[in-house]
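task queued by scheduler; priority normal; single chain, no ligands, no partner chains; default sampling; output format set to structure tokens
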Amino acid sequence: MGFGMVSLAGLLAPDALGAALTETEAKSNSPLAPKSPHFPGKAKRVIHIFANGGPSHLDTFDPKPILTKLHGQPLPMQNLPTERKTGAAFKSPFAFKKYGQSGIEVSELFSHVAEHIDDIAVIRSMHADVPNHEPSLMLMNCGDARLPRPSMGAWVTYGLGTVNQNLPGFISMCPGYPIQESQNWQSAFLPGIYQGTYINTKKEKLEDLIEHIKNNSVTQAEQRQQLDLLHQLNERHALRRAHDAQLEARIQSFELAYRMQIDASDAFDISKEPEHIRTMYGTGTQARQMLIARRLIERGVRFVQVWHGDDQPWDSHDDLEVNHRKLAGESDQAIGALLADLKQRGMLEDTLVIWGGEFGRTPTVELPTAGANAGKVNGRDHNHHGFTMWLAGGGVRGGYVHGATDEFGYKAVEKRVHVHDLHATLLQLLGFDHTKLTFRHAGRDFRLTDVHGNVVKELIA
């Protein structure tokens, strides 16, 4: 149903619906109007790059040379329980080297990202709850592995609003759908206006990316008259159904869709970028997504999520070397270009960039299991006991490695960071006390971190 289903925008008074809505009018009537956080935050906006499927920390940002020495041999410890059965030590097929003044080791897979390592905080001690995609995706995105909860992007737009009332405050781009689909950017019990707007970036033409973005049937003035009448009828309908959040969100979405016809057309059109910028990002879907992400936050979108692809592409139970090399090849140049582009525009200092998946992978090889893998014995199983994520910009302490997994990379053992701690820290960077950013629902004050989470102060510059 196109943007008729998108629950985002401002609830506009009928007398404010002229041929053009001024920025002042839009903000004064919108629940997405910019809001002040609890205290001045160093980050003003977020780009969350999601390597869905679980990239291997051991092959990207957490080198473990001992696995090379023990390759093919049992570890001198019992293998930790994960989703599937694993066997002997499995060395990384990729070379690591030190980068930047900080000398942090990064895999050859991410050599472009590594050029910016002095602006990056690498968290090598992440851990989650279970080794399964669905609950781990929900935990990372929504702060709860099992129950319907608002996504991180929804909480951020609820707390901060957004700058440009002619674009959604929270946009989630993915070429296809990840596991759990729209639950990853849901608003749950928050008002529907804070739900993420999904864009299928498999499609390249603007008219395919955003359905009905252009109206070829009537003029803009005629469309405005139609919407004015529709708004009056909907207002009358709503008066008899007080506090119907779904109805209110639907009314608001019509107005956003109208206003987006100009701003979205511009934001998603990367042909307007200079050739040298497009060359810097490279070609392919990931390059296009990263460049659009920069264009969106540049135009005031508060939270942009960039998924790698359909389903769970980083889920390398077999052929890890081939798959990880392919996936990193699709994204490394574009992510490095994004960091460089933000920095040259003076935007990195107040834009928080996040990279990671829902968990990591085992230091041991996955054993063949009927119906579970191809039986090639050259991949890794899921690993929630220890994995890596990194943060850049937005007040993050650059050139810093936080915590560590054990010598094999199985489990976080030093300065452990749970997903709840990560969320608390991200909100802190945005200017929020995570214990006070709450919403009253079903007789309880809910928050992104539930009843958990501690701010990791070492990650903050």
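post-processing summary
- The mean pLDDT is 89.
- The radius of gyration is 23 Å.
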